[in-house]
Structures are given as structure tokens and as C-alpha cells.
Amino acid sequence: MKIDIIGDIHGCYEEFTQLTEVLGYSWEKGYPVHHDGRILGFVGDLTDRGPQSLKVIEIVYELAIVHKLALYAPGNHCNKLYRYFSGNKVQITHGLETTVAEYKQLPERHQKIIRKKFMDLYEQSPLYQVTDNEKLVIAHAGIRSDYIGKMNDKVKSFVLYGDVSGAKHPDGSPIRRDWAPYYQGQAIIVYGHTPVLEPRNVNRTYNIDTGCVFGGKLTALRYPELKMISVPSTLPFFAEKFKTRFDES
After folding, report:
1. Rounded distance, CA 139 to CA 160, Å?
2. Contact 200, 150 (CB under 8 A)
3. What is the C-alpha separation between 176 and 163, in angstroms, rounded?
4. Can you tell me the distance from the alpha carbon of 75 to that of 44, in angstroms, rounded to the nearest whole number?
5. Would you call the peptide bond into 181 cis, given omega within 30 degrees of 0 as the criterion?
6. Closest CA to 212 of 1, 17, 36
7. CA-to-CA distance for 68 and 71, rounded, in angstroms?
8. Helix axes 53-61, 96-104, angle to 10 degrees
9. What is the pLDDT of residues 17-27, one digit of tens each?
């Protein structure tokens, strides 16, 4: 298997197209296709905060559902948008407001189309992707080795939000325990969720959320080469959004 796994896009469609072109994908068909048969992977959080969330949804739907040219694992922002589209009461905050504003600008017919595409994408994708004979796992916030192959509320919480206990820092942000140093599994884990200035490789885990929507860059991990490729963000830089230290307990 040859796959290029892309970190949290968050509506940064321009950087997404640029990154795929750098990776050797052609957009002649209106979606990225690689001449060597490589496919794309997505660690989730396609939407929110950035300027073109709906275009990202359409392309990932086309790739993953229509043409089977991508593997997608949802993130916590994807989960929240799915609940919004399902009619559940959710707080339209933390970036969801940008996606909802885009959505409400569409004619009603187009709203129904994009809503169905996203819900189909979400419903037809697993919580996390296990592929290449269980040698590779794509999970939004990561996954513990003993959780791989399991599906319950604890696993879902870990995959979508990380290793959280409900405790918070003084600024209100959740305390996320750093699970990567304790990972002892054989599978390579590729994840995002926590923005870092540079891709982070600890044991056999790779955090490739390099904070494109916060002015960092958009990063892809080429597998099986394990080579990182990034393009710079076009958005303003917010240093405070990036994780520079990790909680140990």
C-alpha cells in the first residue's frame, strides 16, 4: 500500500490542493489522482475555522465514497458537524460557526446535497482506519495499542479527543495526557488533533497536525516511506495555538 496521509485540513482548501500537487497528484478530473496509484488518507477535522470547509467535504467525499481513492477517519469537529446535520442541539462555536455560515449561504437545494454527502461520508467510514495488514492505523487523536480492533465509548473518546480525563488547564483547555511515549504497539499510528509546529514522531506514532488553520503548515506523511511533506499556510500565525509541551499525567 502506498498512501499519503494528510493532517487536519480545517477548511484550508487552497493549501490542500497545493499539498496534493506537491505530492504528485493531478486535478484534471476535478479531484486529486496519482499516476502511480497512490491514494490519500485523512486524519479527520476536514472542516471548521478555515475558509472553504464545504469544498473540502466535497472532494473527500468524491475520493473516499465515490472513487475509493482515499481512507478517511473522522475527527471531533467532523463528529460535531455530523450531529449538527443530524438535527442535534450543539453549540455552534469553536470553529463550527464558520462551516455553518458557509452552509447557510447555499441555496436550499445545495444545502441538502452537501449535508447528504457529509453524512454519507461520516456514516460509511470507520471511527479509525486499520489498513495494510494491520501495520498502519489512522486515528484522529491517536489510539492506544490495546484499543486497536475495539469499538466502545472509551475508544471513541480517545480517538476523537485524545487521552483526556475531563480535567482542564487554568485557561479552560482540556488536559490531554501524552500517550505517545507509552505506545508499545507494532502498528504505525498516524494522527492529528493537537497542533504542533513540526510533525512529531514518538515511538511508532506520528502527529501530523501542523496547524495549517492557525498559520502553520499542512503536512502529509508518505507511507510506507515515512517521509514528511509540508506546504506553508496562507493564514495568519497564532503561536498560542500550538502545543509546545505535553502533559504527562
Report:
1. 8
2. no
3. 5
4. 4
5. no
6. 17
7. 8
8. 80
9. 999 999 999 99
Query: Distance (Å, rounded) from C-alpha 228 to C-alpha 190?
Result: 12
Q: pTM for the whole thing? A: 0.95
How far apart are alpha carbons 219 and 238 in whole angstroms?
17
What are the DSSP calls for the chain, one per residue? --EEEE---TT-HHHHHHHHHHTTEE-TTSS-EETT--EEEE-S--SSSSS-HHHHHHHHHIIIIIS--EEE---HHHHHHHHHHTT------TTHHHHHHHHHTS-HHHHHHHHHHHHHHHHTS-SSEEETTTTEEE-TT---GGGTT--SHHHHHHHHH-EEEEEE-TTSPEEEE--GGG---SSEEEE-SS--SS-EEETTEEE----GGGTSEEEEEEETTTEEEEEE-SSPP-GGGS--S-B--
pLDDT in tens, 83-135: 999 999 999 999 999 999 999 999 999 999 999 999 999 999 999 999 999 99
Distance (Å, whole) CA 195 – CA 224: 23
Pull the grid cell for residue 3. Answer: 498512501
Cell of 123: 456514516
Give CB contacts under 8 A, 24+ apart, made by 87-94: 94/48
